[in-house]
Amino acid sequence: MGNITFVEHSGEQHSVKIEKGKTLMEIAMNNGIPGVDADCGGECACGTCHVIVDAAWLDKTGNTSDDELQMLDMTPERADSSRLSCQLTVTDAMDGMTVNIPEFQM
Amino acid sequence: MNKAFTSIKESMGFTPGHATIKAAQFLNNTKSKLGLTRPFPTFIETPIPDVDTLAIEDIDVSNPFLYRQEKWQSYFKRLRDECPVHYQKNSQFGPFWSVTRYEDIMYVDKNHELFSAEPIITLGPVPEGLDKLEMFIALDPPKHDIQRKAAQGVVAPKNLKELEQQIRTRTANKLDSLPIGKPFDWVENVSIDLTAVMLATLFDLPLEERGKLPYWSDIVGSTPEATGGVGVDNNQVYEACAELLKRFSLIWREKEAKLAAGEELGFDLISLLLKDENTKNMINEPLSFLGNLALLIVGGNDTTRNSMSSGVNALHEFPDQFEKLKKDPSLIPSMVSEIIRWQTPLAYMRRVAKQDVELNGQIIKKGDKVVMWYVSGNRDERYIQDPDEFIVDRKDARKHISFGFGVHRCMGNRLAEMQLRILWEELLKRFDKIEVVGEPEYVQSNFVKGFSKLSVKLTAKQS
Question: How far is it, in rounded angstroms, from Cα A38 to Cα A34?
Fold first, then answer.
């Protein structure tokens, strides 16, 4: 059991417990993290669960599919280490990881 | 200075885009005289039978009077329950498949490599020549992605933040001018005008010219051939396009001259296109330029307009929800999503199968038209609890399908939400009651689900 920290655009931090096998989006939802909408419910079809992973942790988050890249392309908030949190399955290796929530979801 | 002046002069006259539209119009008229054009459909309203009296294969949800006669709920419910992927083989718009359940719609919307958005997203075609307009809503990747990316900045939340105060002031001015205690048409006075005010803000079109925006939108976006709308002559469509292009070419040249003179540009659409490396020469590609303008004008008009009317009508039908909202205005954002679900101002988007696809037990053949009925998905009992209830604090209110999903998801969704949020914030500050007096009237179309008239009487808030 470890923790992942969500950082809101305002700087406010939320540390949440890792639930192995769940997606990062589900964990954000279960913990009521503000700034993650997830309108499509995890289908990789809306882009509103966008997070920016701390670059040092990016290689722990697995592959990014073409579909995900295409959806990420649709947000002007995109950064180099952007991911859709619904496409990222949480593992123990992510203990200590920090992800930033962009100012806006689009 | 001299150069800028010449540019402005050029755009007043015969621009390349102008010539393209004129050529299409000429070709269409010549063919029409020779009897070579498609027959122009007219739709005469007759009572729509109860769905229970029909054989399943005879159900035709492309009837442009389905919403006006309030038959859409029963028609789509029967399809969802008995034949969720349904083939209508001889509608006035030709044969088409209807996809009516939320999950199936999501599947079609997501799989753009199986279902193409080209050449057009309405059931029927647009006037000849205008199908060459490049609107990214009706383009597949990769072309879609490039064009959308160029335009999306104007409705990006960062940009909207810059515009919010201006839109709020303009909304407040509008609401302060409304009559109290006296019935008036909400559609014309508020929904249409306020939508035009906001689009004019977005395009930096002088406010006194804003009436042109709904005028262009209604002509370009509601031809009988495409959606079963009230008839306008094809010539009117060509002329509206030419006029629109001319006006915005002039704005473009003015801003271009400012930019060349070292002045700061604003956050409006044309300024953003001019400032973007990929789009700074878009005026030289008239089919793209006009396509993008038409898309944003049509996309921004009917949708917001009808959501503005729908919210008033829904809270009138569900007075307990209005009371709940007044007690807790922090519910406005959630209610805004619920209004957009409840109304589903654009009833569907069309696709064409790029290969044979099996969907929910049916084989859709390559080349078949496939219509994703968002209006049905938003009332799918399998996905949404009590879908026929309007609930201002609905759990998961954002999970409606009105914006579509996948690469074509509505680009202006955050603008729409902001416009509606501001409207309701300002309404609640001023009025205690917003009564609907008289039967609402509905638009003739199978695409736009909207109000043509909504008589309303306001009661001022006791201060």
Answer: 11
Q: What tens digit of pLDDT does each residue of A55-82 get?
A: 999 999 999 999 999 999 999 899 999 9
How many domains would you assign to chain A? 1
Please give the residue range of the domain that contains residue B27.
2-460
Answer yes or no: do A74 and B141 touch at CB < 8 A.
no
Q: Is residue A106 part of a domain?
A: no
The pLDDT, as a whole number, for residue B48 is: 97
Give the C-alpha separation, B368 to A19, whole Å.
44
The rounded distance, in Å, linking the Cα atoms of A44 and A66 is 11
d(Cα B67, Cα B62) in Å, to the nearest integer? 10
Stretch B228-255: mean pLDDT: 89
Answer yes or no: is A63 within a domain: yes
Round to whole Å and give the CA distance between B3 and B7: 6
Asked whether the beta carbons of B385 and B126 are under 8 A apart, the reply is no
Query: Given pLDDT bands bounded at 50, 70 and 90, which one contains residue B1?
Result: very low
Contacts of B271 (CB under 8 A, 6+ apart): B204, B255, B265
A7: enclosing H helix or E strand: strand A3-7
Q: Which of B109, B334, B403, B407 to mutate to test the interface with A (most CBs of A within 10 A)?
A: B407
Q: How far apart are CA B63 and CA A97, in angstroms?
A: 54
Among B399, B411, B418, most A C-beta atoms within 10 A, so best to mutate, is B399
**In the structure, what pLDDT confidence band is assigned to residue B34 with cuts at 50, 70 and 90?**
low
Looking at the domain assignment, is residue A81 inside a domain?
yes
Q: What is the ipTM of this complex?
A: 0.93
Which residues share a beta bridge with A89?
Answer: A23
Provide the pairing of β-strand B451-453 with B357-359. unpaired
pLDDT in tens, B75-103: 999 999 999 999 999 999 999 999 999 99
CB-CB contact of B305 with B450 (8 Å)? yes
Å between B439 CA and nearest CA of chain A: 34
Domain of residue B147, CATH code: 1.10.630.10
pLDDT greater at residue B74 or residue B11:
B74
Q: Which domain holds residue A72?
A: 3-100
Nearest CB neighbour to B157, from listed A41, A46, A104: A104
Contact in structure between B195 and B304 (CB atoms under 8 Å): yes
In this structure, which amino acid lies at residue B195?
T
Confidence band (pLDDT; 50, 70, 90) for B257? very high
Whether the bond between B119 and the residue before it is cis, its omega within 30 degrees of 0, is yes
Question: Does residue A65 sit within a domain?
Answer: yes
Residue A8: CATH number of its domain = 3.10.20.30
What total number of domains does chain B contain? 1
CB < 8 Å to A67, chain B: 110
Contact across the interface for A74 and B148, Cβ inside 8 Å: yes
CA distances from B395 to B4, B47, B390 (A): 55, 37, 12
- Would the pLDDT of B420 be above 90? yes
Q: Is B406 helix (H, G, I), strand (E, B) or coil?
A: coil
User: pLDDT digits over B364-399, tens only?
Assistant: 999 999 999 999 999 999 999 999 999 999 999 999
Token duo for residue B188: 């014309």
